[in-house]
Amino acid sequence: MYDFANSGYTTVVITAVFSAYFVAEVAGNAPWATFAWTAALAVSYALIMCTAPVIGAWADARAAKKSLLGATTLGCIAFTAALALIGHGDVAGGIALIILSNFFFGSGENLIAAFLPEIAEGEALGRVSGWGWSLGYCGGLVALGICLAYVTHAQGRGAPATEFVPVTMLITAAIFALACLPTFLFLRERAQPQPDGSTAVRAAFARLRETLRTAHRYRDLRRFLVCLVLYQAGIQTVIALAAIYAQQAMGFTTRDTLLLILVVNVTAALGAFAFGYVQDRLGHVPTIVLTLLGWVVTVLLAWRAEGPALFWVAANLVGVCLGSSQSAGRALVAYLSPPGRQAEFFGLWGLAVKLSSILGPLTYGAVTWLSGGDHRLAILITGGYFIAGIAIIAGVDAGRGRAAARDLQPVGADRAAR
């Protein structure tokens, strides 16, 4: 249900509505507008990168995943609602609120993912993760559907974007607030605090030092995190810039873009659900390779599209690949994480995803700026990240990585043995 609740933020704010609104209305289609949008996201992801490992280690040491999740949820809801105040020319305000709302969203995303190993056994991680991603896309559909209905009504009476976009921000915040309630009412924190005689901050850093010290024992996880940075750079580019590409390169209106993203969310939900079972049957690594090959084909189709027909085909293939690759990556991290340290290792997962969220969109934004607005060239270069991901993941052995994670001793165990 938390996947259901928070998906409206990425779907409406980052992907479908506010991104294109920022470029076209807030920044007035300035040559630097797309780069400014990607730079704002990059700052927020850099903040998450700096804090995620410590937050994860703290959550493990104090069994505080749920309380920290509550704080990040409130932050994201509040700053999303505040985006309704942003109008034409308010570039600084828009950038500040995107940085803050996305920081709280990303931090909460890491914390909720760390519950996965507590509610699913190793053999079921793929399909349970798939259920979550699938339901998440359903949540995105609900938020997007309500926003689409409102935008259609508003445009029908001649309202400008500066009037209806702020309302969609309030709708998104309200849906997040309501849909997350089951998580906080029913989800139980199963982890137990692990006091070690030091303060929580010192304990967090001690656990991080242990992670780095024993890195050679989970080389497959380390290699997959490198792979994750590369292929997620491509995925995060599509998420952050889909609406901008649709409107700037394909000439879509706001209503056309909302309808496009709505359909993509349907195929994404189906892809996440189906590939959860495929992953448990085929294996984690082969499933991810299959989805990355799909991404390469998708990028080539979007690059070649001159009209809406081929672009719609590419967009629906995006949906299938998006849901499946995101779910498969989360499940593989859970599979390779040592027992009792899931939040810490999902902090590293978040670190990798956020690094990719800086790398990919900034590459796209820089290419469009330097090329005078050539969005087709930018999307073609994005495809290189998926090819690099396929090359790196070929060396990951999931079975070996799982065995290394099960053998990893908790912090202080080697000292106690001596």
Keywords:
418 residues, mainly alpha, Growth Hormone, Chain: A
Description:
- The protein has 418 residues and is an all-alpha fold.
- The chain has one domain (2-190, 206-409): MFS general substrate transporter like domains (Growth Hormone, Chain: A).
- 82% of the residues lie in helices and 0% in strands.
- It has 18 helices and no strands.
- The protein has helices at 2-16, 18-26, 33-62, 65-82, 91-113, 116-119, 125-156, 161-179, 181-186, 200-213, 219-248, 254-282, 284-304, 308-336, 342-370, 375-393, 398-407, 413-417.
- Helix 3 (33-62) packs across helix 10 (200-213).
- It is globular.
- The N and C termini lie far apart (45 Å).
User: What general form does the structure show?
Assistant: globular
- What is the percent of helical residues? over 70%
Count of spatially separate domains: 1
Q: Per CATH, which architecture?
A: Up-down Bundle
How much β-strand is present in the residues? under 5%
Low-confidence stretches are 409-418
* Biggest sheet features: none
The CATH homology group name = MFS general substrate transporter like domains
Query: First CA to last CA: what distance?
Result: 45 Å
Overall structural class, as computed from helix and strand content, comes to: mainly alpha
Number of helices: 18
CATH topology: Growth Hormone, Chain: A
The ordered string of helix (H) and strand (E) elements is HHHHHHHHHHHHHHHHHH
Q: What is the name of the CATH class?
A: Mainly Alpha
Radius of gyration from CA coordinates: 21 Å
Number of strands: 0
Mean pLDDT: 85
